[in-house]
């Protein structure tokens, strides 16, 4: 397993759980040391237990040695990151290329590379050529086996996925299906495709999810203008089985290390293929999403009387979503940063993402608890829907804030309850307080 970040570490531990012998290859010394000692270097519920079980059973090991990896296996998963290139929409494939260039020269005989990273369509075909050009004696095939796991649900999504997709030559796809035999035996559908279809399935799925979120956020702007309630609207349209209620939660919009960069890389690749017109709607999806952040800053500002200078704002939540410590492209931190730039004194609290937040936004103030963050606040902004924030008793905060103003960035709070406790309750997309 090349790359032991979210995807690779989870997949490595899950494959050991299925009874396979797994060698995780990680070149980051800090991550490698943590994994070897049974520590997961990020927050993922259930993964520490699975990792330790794998290590204890002897089925799972970690190394940074490519030569060892070449000798250990004939099936090689690629799970390294494909971040957005600086200043461009396109994906940076340097980590994927580096795996091929460091591994292929050590290979002899027949080997199969199984791509899991999210890549621009056409990458797998290029890697096939690139890898074989570096082998003296043998042949390397490439299949693509995209991953659909969500942070916070990574183990369930890996061991009980909605579907398994494998693209490539029939014989190689069969070998991949053998790896997943227990999962397939439990009834998970297997879809075998060609290489470009498998690559595209992943970015199409993430684009659809991003579009669904931006759709409801666009409707939320109209709801606000018309005095309607977007949450009730989402419930009502979501009852239609063709639409479905999931991913129709309006609020601060999507962030994280996947949806934003994936839709941008998809647009860039479509442009290279001469199909850019087909994806112009994704530009709108992206801009609706980014507009949520500025709209939220405006809502906080108007809730503070139109001027943020000198206002104390408590921001509850820093992770891009609950049950995660990931702050990559986090809407919560982006808004916190914008509020600070507008002159507010911002104090952030998150149950899990404090260390990562401090690294990314060192100039913000951080508190150790909800109470500490809210002390003396002119407004409390709930920016990530952690259950501990949803369950806050407003009466506990009333005595410690300067003004009782709560802004529900994820439309997750019981607005009526806050209202009844004497708070001004605000949310983007119409205020659901009757
Ligand atoms: C996403 C996809 O859901 C996974 O299927 C995919 O495998 C993964 O990207 C990936 O490409 O690796 P993830 O980034 O973990 O997973 O997070 P999601 O649960 O999809 O949430 C993404 C963002 O959308 C979060 O910021 C969340 O707060 C936001 N969101 C989600 C909404 O604003 N509204 C919703 O209704 C749902």
From TrEMBL:
One of the GO BP terms on file: polysaccharide biosynthetic process
Coiled-coil ranges from the UniProt annotation: none
UDP-glucose/GDP-mannose dehydrogenase C-terminal domain mapped to chain residues: 314-415
The keyword NAD belongs to this UniProt entry's keyword annotation: yes
Binding, NAD(+): 31, 82, 118, 151, 261, 328
Pfam families tied to this protein: UDPG_MGDP_dh, UDPG_MGDP_dh_C, UDPG_MGDP_dh_N
InterPro entries: 6-PGluconate_DH-like_C_sf, NAD(P)-bd_dom_sf, UDP-Glc/GDP-Man, UDP-Glc/GDP-Man_DH_C, UDP-Glc/GDP-Man_DH_C_sf, UDP-Glc/GDP-Man_DH_dimer, UDP-Glc/GDP-Man_DH_N, UDPglc_DH_bac
Pathway recorded for this protein: Nucleotide-sugar biosynthesis; UDP-alpha-D-glucuronate biosynthesis; UDP-alpha-D-glucuronate from UDP-alpha-D-glucose: step 1/1
Keywords annotated in UniProt: NAD, Oxidoreductase
GO molecular function, one term: NAD binding
Matches recorded under SUPFAM superfamilies: 6-phosphogluconate dehydrogenase C-terminal domain-like, NAD(P)-binding Rossmann-fold domains, UDP-glucose/GDP-mannose dehydrogenase C-terminal domain
Top-level division of the source organism's lineage: Bacteria
Annotated positions binding substrate: 148-151, 202, 247-251, 255, 321
Active site: 258
Reactions accelerated catalytically: UDP-alpha-D-glucose + 2 NAD(+) + H2O = UDP-alpha-D-glucuronate + 2 NADH + 3 H(+)
EC numbers, comma separated: 1.1.1.22
Family, per entry: Belongs to the UDP-glucose/GDP-mannose dehydrogenase family.
Biological role stated in the UniProt entry: Catalyzes the conversion of UDP-glucose into UDP-glucuronate, one of the precursors of teichuronic acid.
Protein name as it appears in the record: UDP-glucose 6-dehydrogenase
Organism encoding this protein: Gordonia jinhuaensis
Lineage of the species this protein comes from: Bacteria, Bacillati, Actinomycetota, Actinomycetes, Mycobacteriales
């Amino acid at each position: 397993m090349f790359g032991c970040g979210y995807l690779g570490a989870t997949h490595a531990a899950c494959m050991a759980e299925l009874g396979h012998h797994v060698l995780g290859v990680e070149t980051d010394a800090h991550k490698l040391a943590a994994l070897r000692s049974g520590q997961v270097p990020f927050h993922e519920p259930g993964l520490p237990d699975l990792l330790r079980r794998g290590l204890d059973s002897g089925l799972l090991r970690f190394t940074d040695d490519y030569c060892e990896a070449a000798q250990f296996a004939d099936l090689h998963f690629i799970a390294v990151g494909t971040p957005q290139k600086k200043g461009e929409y396109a994906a940076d494939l340097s980590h994927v290329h580096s795996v091929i260039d460091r591994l292929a020269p050590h290979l002899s005989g027949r080997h199969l590379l199984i791509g899991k990273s999210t890549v621009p369509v056409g990458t797998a075909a290029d890697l096939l050529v690139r890898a074989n050009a570096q082998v003296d004696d043998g042949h390397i095939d490439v299949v693509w086996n995209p991953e659909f796991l969500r942070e916070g649900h990574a183990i369930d999504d890996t061991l009980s996925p909605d579907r398994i997709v494998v693209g490539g030559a029939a014989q190689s796809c069969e070998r991949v299906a053998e790896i997943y035999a227990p999962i397939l035996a439990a009834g998970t559908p297997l879809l075998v495709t060609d290489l470009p279809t498998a690559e595209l399935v992943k970015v199409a799925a993430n684009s659809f999810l991003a579009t669904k979120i931006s759709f409801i956020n666009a409707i939320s702007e109209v709801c606000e203008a018309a005095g309607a309630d977007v949450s009730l609207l989402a419930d009502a349209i979501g009852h239609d089985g063709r639409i479905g209620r999931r991913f129709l939660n309006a609020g601060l919009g999507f962030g994280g290390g996947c949806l934003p960069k994936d839709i941008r890389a998809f647009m860039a690749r479509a442009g290279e293929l001469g199909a850019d017109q087909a994806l112009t709607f994704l530009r709108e999806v992206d801009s609706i999403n980014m507009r949520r952040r500025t709209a939220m800053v405006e809502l906080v500002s108007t809730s503070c009387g139109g001027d943020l200078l000198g206002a104390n704002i408590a921001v509850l939540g820093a992770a891009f979503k609950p049950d995660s410590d990931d702050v990559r492209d986090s809407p919560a931190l982006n808004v916190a940063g914008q509020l600070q730039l507008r002159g507010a004194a911002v104090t952030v609290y998150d149950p899990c993402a404090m260390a990562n937040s401090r690294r990314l936004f060192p100039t913000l103030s951080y508190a150790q608890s909800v109470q500490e963050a809210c002390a003396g606040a002119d407004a409390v902004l709930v920016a990530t829907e952690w259950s501990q924030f949803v369950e806050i008793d407003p009466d506990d905060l009333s005595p410690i804030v300067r003004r009782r103003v709560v802004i529900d960035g994820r439309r997750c709070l019981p607005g009526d309850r806050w209202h009844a406790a004497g708070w001004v309750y605000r949310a983007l997309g119409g205020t659901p307080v009757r």
